[in-house]
Amino acid sequence: MSVNKKPHPHGTASARLLKLARSRSLVRTRDVAKLGIHTGELTRLTRAGELERLGPGRYQRPGAPVSSEHHDLAIATSAVRGSVICLLSALRFHGIGAQLPHQVWIAVPRGTRVPRLDAPPIRVINISPALFDIGVEVHRIEGHGTKVYGVARTVADCFRFRNTVGLDVALEALSESWRAKRLDLNHLNRVAKRLRVQRVMQPYLEMVVL
């Protein structure tokens, strides 16, 4: 005599959650909540070894392959809501210069509470809220909309934070992006003026352009 087994009470939710985890490199608590799945499923599947916890509100499949060279950028900006990839990490993203940062450089509005991350290591740059949104672009990385400062903003920021990244890095960013025709001078000057770094950058710009 066959016995009809009752479906596991968590079966449907678990299946949906694992399907989500297979479709992307990172699962966030808020993604799960939007699907109408109780976030307790994340804890249950983690205990069962079906998921692993990367940090607060972030999970992935155990041993999930890294699908792009910008994996850490997607992880960092997903963990720190509202953050923007900046400076050395933005240069790396745009393929400018020879910088290979061992941290993910992110900008946040001044006063933002930044959660502690186990990985990846991050370098936080605090930006005035009035200047924060200048030059922000959104790029799809591993299925996530990731905010990255554009080339002009990044070059201007390198001069603005030259004492942090080094003047040599700022000069390299300016000269390489200009040679690669990645810069529009009018746009760069407008951005630099708004960031109050135009006068600092102008002598170097004249050397590169002339």
How would you portray this structure in words?
It is a single chain. With 210 residues, this protein is an alpha+beta fold. The chain has two domains: 11-60; 71-209, no CATH class. It is 44% helix and 17% strand. The strands form three sheets. The protein has a three-stranded antiparallel sheet, sandwiched between helices. It has a three-stranded mixed sheet with strand order 4-5-6. It has a two-stranded antiparallel sheet with strand order 7-8. Helix 6 packs antiparallel against helix 8, helix 6 crosses helix 9 and helix 8 (167-179) crosses helix 10. The protein is elongated, with a radius of gyration of 21 Å. The termini are far apart.
Summed up:
The chain has helices at residues 11-23, 29-34, 40-47, 71-79, 87-94, 151-160, 162-165, 167-179, 185-194, 198-209; strands spanning 27-28, 52-55, 58-60, 84-85, 104-109, 122-127, 136-141, 144-149. The strands form 3 sheets. Strands 1-3-2 form a 3-stranded antiparallel sheet, with helices on both faces. Strands 4-5-6 form a 3-stranded mixed sheet. It has a two-stranded antiparallel sheet with strand order 7-8.
Strand content: 15-25%
Shape by Cα distribution: elongated
Number of strands: 8
> Ends: how far apart?
90 Å
Give the radius of gyration.
Answer: 21 Å
Sheet with the most strands: spatial strand order: 1-3-2
**What would the average pLDDT be, to the nearest integer?**
85
Order of helices and strands: HEHHEEHEHEEEEHHHHH
State the helix count.
10
The low-pLDDT segments are 1-10
Oligomeric state: single chain
